[in-house]
Amino acid sequence: MFLAVPGSASRNPSLEQTPSEDGGETLVPPLSAGSRIAENVHGDEDPLKPDPGNEHEFEVIDNVFAFSPGQLGRLINPKNLPALRALGGISGLEKGLRTDLKAGLSLDETTLEGSVSFKEATAASDTNATSTTVEPSAPTRSGTAGTHTGREAHNDSYKDRIRVFKDNRLPERKSKTLLQLMWIALMDKVLLLLSAAAVISLALGLYQTFGVQHTPEQGAQVDWVEGVAIVVAILIVVIVGAGNDYQKERQFVKLNKKKEDRTVKVIRSGKSLQISVYDLLVGDVCHLEPGDLIPADGIFISGHNIKCDESSATGESDQMKKIGAAEALAQYEAGHPNPHKLDPFILSGAKVLEGVGTFLVTSVGVHSSFGKTMMALREDSTATPLQMKLNDLAEAIAKLGGAAALLLFVVLLIRFLVNLRGNTAPPSEKGQSFMRILITAITVVVVAVPEGLPLAVTLALAFATTRMLKDNNLVRVLQACETMGNATTVCSDKTGTLTQNRMTVVAGTIGTTQRFGDKRALKGDAAQSGDAEKDAQDLTIRDFVGSLPKDLKDILLQSIVQNSTAFEGEEDGVPTFIGSKTETAMLTFARDYLGMSSVSEERANAQVAQMVPFDSGRKCMGAVIRMPNGQFRLYVKGASEIVLSKCTRIVTLEGPEAQLSEEIEKSINQTITGYAERSLRTIGMLYRDFPSWPPAGARLSKDDSTQAHFDDVFNEMTWLGIVGIQDPLRPGVHEAVTQCQKAGVFVRMVTGDNVTTAKAIAADCGIYTPGGVVMEGPKFRQLPPAEMDRIIPRLQVLARSSPEDKRTLVRRLKELGETVAVTGDGTNDGPALKMADVGFSMGIAGTEVAKEASAIILMDDNFSSIVKALMWGRAVNDAVKKFLQFQLTVNITAVLLTFVSAVASTDETSVLSAVQLLWVNLIMDTFAALALATDPPSPSILNRKPDPKSAPLITINMWKMILGQAVYQLVVTFTLNFAGRHILGYQDTPGENLQLKALIFNTFVWMQIFNQYNNRRLDNKFNIFEGVTRNWFFIAINLVMIGGQVMIIFVGGQAFSVTKLNGIQWAISIILGAISLPVAVIIRLIPDEMLEKIAPSFMLRKRDTTPVYVSADDRFEWNRGIEEIRQELSFLKTVRGGRLNQLRFRPHDLSETVKENFSHMFRSGSRSELQPSPTGEDNQPPQTAVSHRRRRSRSNSTIAATIIMPSIVAGSVGGWSPVEKTPSPLREGSGNLPFSSRSDLESQPGVTVHPDTAQTDPVLPKQPPAENSVPSQQPGLTPESQHK
Fold this sequence. Notes:
Mean pLDDT: 75
Number of strands: 29
Number of helices: 45
Shape: elongated
């Protein structure tokens, strides 16, 4: 049935829209809370009752309006017709908000006098009134005609309105000042330890310099330099870290401000004005036009054919048809059979697809649904997993260093006390000897504290995030940078990420013989076609258009231009077409190849007799145009296989039309099938000429006698042709997917598109491969968890999926131990983005909510940028490991050298002075952090699998290099220290002793310089110079270190306790240092497997990879407090004894306890197994006892057991027990599973197995993979293509 349209210029729904079959309306499905319309017509529940926690929004002091922000908010969340009724309908809102539905707010409004009560406003109920209906202004194609820029607002403008309802700004996130960021950085554990060491060193240094008398031979003492140097190190770390955070925050704020600011059109004082979106107020009457992004919540007043896309706000995939509030309430009160169709609610964040109208703004800023979502996503960032691992490691190193220092102090103190009886020195000298002992012990602590560790992490992240921005990755959450390096699976959107999100006409056929498009793909079609296809020609688009007769070309052009709802407009200042993607693709084709000048000009020259809106039942739309010869031509386009059945004739290139024979119809259907197999959207075009309109014999519309019933004229049509439209792949996507698979990352496509298109695109990308499974979202969401777990290792495409399907998939992947990256662009993708370990949002097409929920923003919306993020993430992890390997080698060697030489010396001093150790431990570590943390990623970084979450921070390969180099350095330094005088023939004189000490110091430094090159590789390959020319930092810093060492030896003098060395001594130092390179080669030749057999357990032990989750199919109820109590009591029992010895639990011997409390620091014992996502998602898999224990602070260890024991007892009384519950049959075996075999799986609707899958491939495992087992890294579970 035809609809009356006000004005020939109006255009109706497009081919991609799905209104109902009864005249173009779209049913509003009750799918999500955000879009469900309350149904209780006369329920007793108060529809304006505040939600718990939101009572403050209902309380306004001195409210001059009838309603509070909270009451108005009840209209939207959920869509609430009873609330609209309770507020008096649209006329009640008009009166209560003191506005005018026709004239809008007054431009002169400042402070309002008097007030309007709730009762007065709601008395104007418009349940049955129609007087409030406002006729919309005549629809326009461009959407900008007749508007004027609003004048600058006075400071007191709308003062009361803004005071009560706020404006349309979200409060700026209170960014931390640089000083606050510096304070936060200073609170790092390592820096706190460093600060304590600095205070002690500085105090002792000042005492040595100013508190002790020095002989003229001794000269001035500079021991205080050590403390000052540590302070300098702290300042470097704090300033670099805070500066990086500050710069990152400013970049993101700048991006958002640029993206969010825009203008909207409102009516004020009866005039249409364009104002900033930030100046929109409650009570404004705002225009709705196609392409508008709705800026605030409101109630639809009136208009023509308004349809909104609310998928980004609510997840609803259907278009929402809006009806006026007055009409909606009238039908609601009359007992409408389907109240879900009555939707007068306008949601902020939604987009207007078509139609024009006005709506009354009811909520803005923080009170709008969009604002509340944005505010809920604001949260403080957390420490990154790598930082937490290193905090644990630093804590362990500090403990071990403190223990070594304490042992050294005790040993030297005992020796000092033993020698005190026969010591005749004066008291001041004895005191000075004691201070030397204390200084030596403190030096061990200073050497042990890894001050370069936080600097390495900070520099690696700062360098990576800066360079990633150049690669179109804006990192919002630092944790994501390192987490992405170990991602095991990526769940990617299709549209806009894998494809260009720009529909394009790529193939077409006019009649049966003239075609353009992919010649290779079309040859197969032609070969299977009948005789009519034998002469088919495949041409380029320009050659195709050039070969068409002029009259046929004109028919094709007018069919596209006139039978369309899209129009010309601008987006971001660039001229474009606005409307459905199918129609804009066809208009672009007409403009680029058919000589169309302007859509508005073409339409202005045509006389439209009737417009036929798109209908989901007919799957087509039409337009009737009056021809210059007085006849009328009906143009129709729609789903090609459906509209073809209405044709009896077909155009020919020779001129006259021909009969559509069965053979020709068969060939056209084969062409349609060929296009569909290439995932092309096919649009059929046809026409028919009539001598008059309405034609004789056709039924007339009851509303308009000039309109004919479409069903009566939609027959005996002439087939014009068919076009194939496709969203083409982005360049480089296939290569990027292949790189991910090579790197051990399982790529999945999660899309709302249909299965056929999803499979075709996934196959083109290289995602859908033999052994893979495609499943539809409705089928996936019905699976029990155990069955999901069996499907997931083979699931490559999830089609027709909802946002909740995506979130469910991400959750199950995480519970299986996967590190999950997710891409998303809509508001509805927020939960999945937050659930993921790393969320990627789109910088161009992404909504602000998606960006806020994500950790990394893809500035170019391109999947290839994810590969770059993967490379940089691995580079960050590798950089820190490289430095850690170097750092621990220096620390182990320096601590042992200091300890042994101090104990062996007669004056209790170390062979390396405190200032020398400062150069080794601080300056070289700082420089090494700069050198090793700035290595850019090489392509070979993708040639390995990701590290599992349970992997130790220090691998066996790293331990091999650390201990091997430490042994070599200790052998060299001990040999020189204890036998150097004999080997080199030095005399026992002060001068030659000083030369020997300087030689040892110089040799030690050169060994560290050469060892830096060894640490550029973490594997067993020999090429340590790979990519060194691309890292100028490394080269420059090495030159600085060499220059610094040369200067120290030549001019350091007494400050560094050195003397000048001759050429032979320099040669000895450099050669012994260079020998560390061949030593590293020998170390790399030692098989890792051999070392694993003889290595201590603390080097090898990984954390338990099968924790018990509390999830939908859990088997245990486990209270993590029990594990904490056991650990704390075990440790306290060992070190304290007493009453704790009477407690009944299995005792640990001392070695086990020490290992339990320290060894996890050196392996994966970080706290990162189940870390929150980069944005702090709450809906994580629950923590296990082990993960929680390692995450919490040990500062409260002594009272943890006391605090939690009452809770355990109370829980036990309440019925809690850690015993296994009755197992679920779905978890225990596959006998009860619906998918018992591959054939059973393939027979299921909504499930497809790749046709090239080997017959011997079972596809489904017999048992679901164990939780936290990382199935994507197990070749037996996933398709073979994932492990090539």
